[in-house]
């Protein structure tokens, strides 16, 4: 075991594996890095805060020394020196106060601590005592065997080369092999005097490397002379280290004896008063008393308890009440979790049923009763799953909630108090025109659900009514639900520069692109040739999914822009009309084209390949590239034949891409 001994300005380390065995070394061979302390942020006090004055620093030095003479160890003096700068300058490195440290060492329990000759100020030894003489390698007396197995310690025997044997004289070493009886606390027995020398592996490797460098440099005599001075100091260091280790072992033994006696007293007193020992130790008053007496190696007596009995009882009552609240809160949270699981169980069982939000679901009568049951109630998850009564009551509560929600939403849509006896008229909430603006998840989380907080989406409602008029039906007609399904992709947006076909669901979303959306119904015979290719419904949602297959499909260069395709089709029509007007001139120039250069023929071939039925093939993108294209790409509007020379340019300006914007060519090559 290694002990970090900081004596004066020269850090010295010693180690041992048990009682009386020490490893000591000088700073030059085993330098110990300074202990790093975490920087603590200082809390700024308000300007009007009044700090309590420190009356102790106003005392004369003689009275302060008399008070500190009752300290049980140098650790108490060190604690006072760390309080502020005044005590630090008074007690640390001050020859006039050296007698205070000496008196503290002499009165230290269970035995006095000696001082090594030539040592620096006593604060170094006090700091060692305050740290408890903990090992930097083994961390425990019983960790010696594990240190050997972990190769933290190396045994030096006769197999070592002769030139390295002198190194042992000045590096940390273990002089005795010891065994610790792990079944009896603080029983240490020296079982043998070892013929081998055990050193720390890192120290040995460092010393060997240093010696090899000296051999190469050829300055061995000066090096050995310097190390001899360190070797001469080693016995003094060993003696002081043995003293500290002996004190440490006796201190541990006395600490455990005192701790056991105080715990026995605490247990008996708590049982006599009807408390538990844990509750008594948890109180701030008794906990402070217990640990302060243990640090001073003093036993707690009945006289220490009687003056603070009333305070202890009040603190224990507060602890018991806090425990009851904690148990109740954990039970309540568990029941809330069970209700949440049941809610998602109902939601996944039937996707078409209408359920309230989770906060509203908790407010239902039966769920509120289940959540507020007694803390000692059994698990409610079984009752929620298996109880027919709870299932019946829950269905009734959900039905009442749905009815209230329908009445409130009908009033929002402009039908307050709507009632009818006809079965051929849809409720306003069940109609296709029951549309409200969408809120994202964060906005929904901040708001409490209430039907009166909804607002009708006027633009979407007007677009749906316009579509239903084209289909020859109305929103209150139950047949309208089937009519929008049968229309397929025959709906065309007239407000777009180039009419795009789409189905009803895409039309509801698409109408928000225009200030005045207008839709028309395309004849069924012309549906497939309106823009060249059929629309693949659900393509955008599928490609924008989170699966690996969707991610792979987004990288394929098989997606074209229907807006550009429509523009190219119009350009082809205009070009065709212009070509018929000049057909005679074209016939006269055919001879010249046949005798043209090879480069002209090649370009003509490429131009032919780019055309399909007179329409140039659409440029293909990856899906993410297409999304960027429809947001920023400029579009040429060919309004007339003259527009070929003076085109009008505008942007697509589509922030949310839809199925009607994508032209997918699955037979194209992939990127």
How would you characterize this protein structure?
- This protein has 27 helices and 16 strands.
- The chain is mostly helical and 671 residues long.
- Among the domains are: 441-530, no CATH class; 540-580 and 605-664, no CATH class.
- The strands form 7 sheets. Strands 3-7-4 form a 3-stranded antiparallel sheet. It has a 3-stranded antiparallel sheet with strand order 9-8-10. The protein has a two-stranded antiparallel ribbon with strand order 1-2.
- A hairpin with a 7-residue loop joins strand 5 (177-180) and strand 6.
- Helix 2 crosses helix 3, helix 2 crosses helix 5 (123-131) and helix 18 runs antiparallel to helix 20.
- It is elongated, with a radius of gyration of 45 Å.
- The model is unreliable at 1-32, 137-150, 176-194, 595-610 and 635-649 (pLDDT under 50).
- InterPro entries: F-box-like_dom_sf, F-box_dom.
- Residues 578-612 are annotated as: Disordered.
- This is F-box domain-containing protein.
- Residues 53-104 form the F-box domain.
Keywords, separated by commas or semicolons:
F-box-like_dom_sf; 16 strands; F-box_dom; mainly alpha; three-stranded antiparallel β-sheet; 48% helix; elongated; 671 residues; disordered N terminus
Query: Could you give the order of strands across the largest sheet?
Result: 3-7-4
Average of per-residue pLDDT values? 76
Give the terminus-to-terminus CA distance: 66 Å
Helical segment tally? 27
The total of beta strands comes to 16
Helix content: 40-55%
What is the structural class? mainly alpha
**Largest beta-sheet details:** 3 strands, antiparallel
Q: Runs with pLDDT <50, length 5+?
A: 1-32, 137-150, 176-194, 595-610, 635-649
CA gyration radius, whole angstroms:
45 Å
Beta-strand residue fraction: 5-15%
Task: Identify the overall geometry.
Answer: elongated
Protein name: F-box domain-containing protein
Organism: Rhodonia placenta
InterPro entries: F-box-like_dom_sf, F-box_dom
Region (Disordered): 578-612
């Amino acid at each position: 075991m290694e002990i970090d001994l900081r004596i004066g300005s020269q850090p010295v380390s010693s180690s041992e594996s048990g009682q009386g065995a020490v490893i000591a070394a000088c700073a030059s061979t085993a330098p110990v890095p300074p202990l790093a302390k975490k920087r603590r942020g200082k809390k700024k006090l308000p300007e009007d805060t009044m700090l309590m004055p420190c009356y102790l620093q106003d005392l004369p030095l003689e009275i302060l020394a008399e008070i500190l003479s009752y300290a049980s160890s140098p650790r108490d003096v060190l604690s006072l020196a760390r309080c502020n700068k005044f005590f630090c300058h008074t007690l640390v490195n001050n020859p006039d106060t050296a007698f205070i440290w000496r008196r503290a060492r002499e009165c230290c329990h269970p035995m006095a601590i000696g001082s090594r000759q030539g040592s620096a100020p006593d604060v170094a030894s006090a700091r060692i005592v305050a740290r408890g003489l903990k090992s930097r390698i083994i961390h425990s007396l019983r960790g010696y065997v594990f240190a050997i197995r972990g190769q933290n310690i190396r045994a030096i025997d006769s197999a070592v080369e002769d030139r390295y044997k002198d190194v042992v004289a000045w590096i940390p070493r273990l002089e005795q092999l010891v065994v610790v009886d792990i079944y009896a606390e603080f029983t240490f027995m020296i079982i043998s005097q070892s013929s081998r020398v055990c050193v720390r592996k890192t120290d040995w490797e460092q010393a060997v490397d240093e010696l090899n460098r000296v051999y190469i440099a050829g300055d061995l005599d000066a090096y050995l002379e310097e190390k001899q001075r360190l070797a001469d100091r080693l016995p003094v260091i060993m003696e002081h280290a043995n003293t500290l280790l002996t004190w440490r072992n006796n201190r541990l033994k006395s600490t455990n004896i005192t701790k056991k006696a105080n715990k026995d007293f605490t247990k008996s007193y708590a049982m006599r008063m009807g408390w538990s020992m844990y509750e008594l130790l948890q109180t701030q008053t008794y906990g402070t008393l217990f640990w302060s007496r243990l640090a001073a190696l003093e036993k707690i007596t009945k006289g220490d308890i009687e003056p603070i009995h009333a305070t202890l009882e009040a603190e224990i009552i507060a602890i018991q009440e806090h425990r009851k609240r904690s148990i109740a809160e954990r039970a309540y949270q568990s029941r809330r979790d069970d209700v949440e699981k049941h809610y998602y169980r109902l939601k996944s069982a039937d996707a078409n049923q209408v359920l309230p939000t989770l906060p509203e679901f908790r407010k239902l009568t039966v769920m509120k009763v289940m959540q507020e049951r007694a803390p000692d109630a059994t698990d409610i998850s079984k009752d929620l799953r298996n109880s027919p009564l709870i299932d019946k009551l829950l269905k009734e509560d959900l039905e009442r909630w749905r009815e209230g929600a329908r009445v409130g939403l009908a009033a929002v849509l402009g039908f307050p108090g709507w009632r009818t006896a006809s079965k051929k008229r849809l409720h306003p909430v069940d109609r296709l025109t029951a549309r409200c603006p969408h809120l994202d998840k964060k906005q929904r989380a901040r708001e409490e659900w209430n039907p009166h907080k909804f607002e009708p989406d006027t633009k979407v409602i007007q677009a749906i009514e316009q579509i239903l008029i084209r289909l020859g039906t109305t929103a209150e007609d139950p047949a309208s639900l089937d009519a929008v399904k049968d229309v397929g992709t025959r709906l065309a947006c007239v407000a777009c520069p180039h009419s795009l076909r789409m189905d009803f669901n895409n039309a509801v979303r698409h109408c928000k692109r225009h200030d005045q959306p207008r839709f028309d119904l395309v004849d069924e015979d012309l549906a497939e040739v309106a823009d060249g290719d059929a629309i693949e419904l659900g393509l955008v949602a599928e490609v924008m999914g989170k699966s690996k297959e969707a991610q792979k499909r987004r990288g394929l260069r098989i997606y074209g822009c229907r807006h550009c395709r429509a523009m190219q089709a119009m350009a082809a029509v205009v070009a065709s009309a212009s070509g018929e007007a000049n057909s005679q001139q074209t016939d006269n120039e055919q001879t010249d084209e046949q005798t043209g250069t090879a480069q002209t023929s090649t370009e003509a071939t490429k131009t032919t390949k780019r055309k399909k039925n007179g329409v140039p093939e659409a440029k293909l993108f990856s899906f993410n590239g297409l999304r960027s294209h429809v947001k920023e790409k400029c579009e040429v509007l060919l309004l007339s034949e003259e527009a070929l020379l003076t085109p009008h340019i505008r942007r697509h300006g589509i922030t949310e891409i839809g199925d009607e914007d994508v032209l997918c060519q699955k037979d194209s090559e992939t990127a």
